[in-house]
Amino acid sequence: MDKFYNATMKMWASAIALRISDEWNGNTNENKEDVFLLKNVLENVLVKNPDECVKLIGTTIIEESYFDKI
């Protein structure tokens, strides 16, 4: 599965990881290194597990239209 809803799995993994880490309640100015670490770990896990990544697309975590052109 190279592309899903007009985006690569890497793009989806990155967007999902960014959204989760950005909205994490531990995301404070004092914890920026932890936020960066969380984003990178999530992205790596999702890239290596595309079936799991796809499960998150179309949920309240990230909408299917995330990469649609406006």
Task: Note poorly predicted spans.
Answer: none
Structurally, how many domains make up the residues?
A: 1
Order of secondary-structure elements: EEHHH
Strand order of the largest sheet: 1-2
Q: Please estimate the helix content.
A: 55-70%
Strand content: 5-15%
Major sheet summary line: 2 strands, antiparallel
The mean pLDDT is 92
Radius of gyration: 12 Å
Q: What is the tally of helical segments? A: 3
The secondary structure category is mainly alpha
Ends: how far apart?
25 Å
- Overall number of strands: 2
- Shape field: globular
What is the compact description of this entry?
This protein is mainly alpha-helical.
Task: Describe what you observe in this structure.
It contains three helices and two strands, in the order E-E-H-H-H. The chain has 70 residues and is mainly alpha-helical. The chain has one domain. A two-stranded antiparallel sheet has the order 1-2. Helix 1 runs antiparallel to helix 2 and helix 1 (9-23) crosses helix 3 (50-56). The radius of gyration is 12 Å and the shape is globular.
